[in-house]
Amino acid sequence: MNQIKFRPLRMEDAWFINNLRQQEDVERMIGGVIRPVSYERDLKWVEDLIMKDHQHMIYFAITPGSSDDIIGYTSISEIDYRNGTCFWSGIKVDPGQAGRGVGTEVALKVLKYVFEELRMVRCKAECLENHQAALNMMLKVGYRQEGLMRKTVYKNGAHNNQWLLSVISSEYEEIRSKFSL
Q1: Is the pLDDT of residue 31 over 80?
Q2: Where is the signal peptide (predicted)?
C-alpha cells in the first residue's frame, strides 16, 4: 500500500491537469460540467489553490511512491470544523493508472488524513449511479451507501442519479485495523 504518495500541488502540475481535463472519457464518469478549459485558466486555478489559504478544501497531487511526477489529484472539500464533517470530492487519475489499485490507495490515504489529521467524525462521498468502478472501490474501502440522490447531476445529455456514501469515525477504526493504516 505504498505505491503512491501525496504532495502539494505545484504550478507545473497545471499542464497535467489541463491534459487530463481534455479526456472526455474521464470527464463523462465524474460529477461536474464538461467544458473546454484553457491551460491558462488551469494555471490560474492551480495558483489560487497554492497561494490562497482555503480553510474548507485541500488538494493533493498524487504521485508514484518512487517519484514526484504527478499521476492524478484528489481533494477534500466542504470541511466543517465545527461539525466535524467533510466531503471527499473525488479523484482524477491518469487513465493509464486504472485497475492498479491506485484509487483504493488514494481513498484509504484520504480517510487516514480526514480522521487522523483533520479529526473529522464523518466523511461523505458521491459517485454517479452508473460509475460501478467508483462505487465498488468506495464500498471496498469501507464507505457505506446512504442512498440514491435522484437527478442531481446533468451529465452526458441527461439528469443523473448519484450515490451518497459516508464513513463515520467509529467505522474508520475498523477500516484502519483491516487495512493496517
Answers
A1: no
A2: none
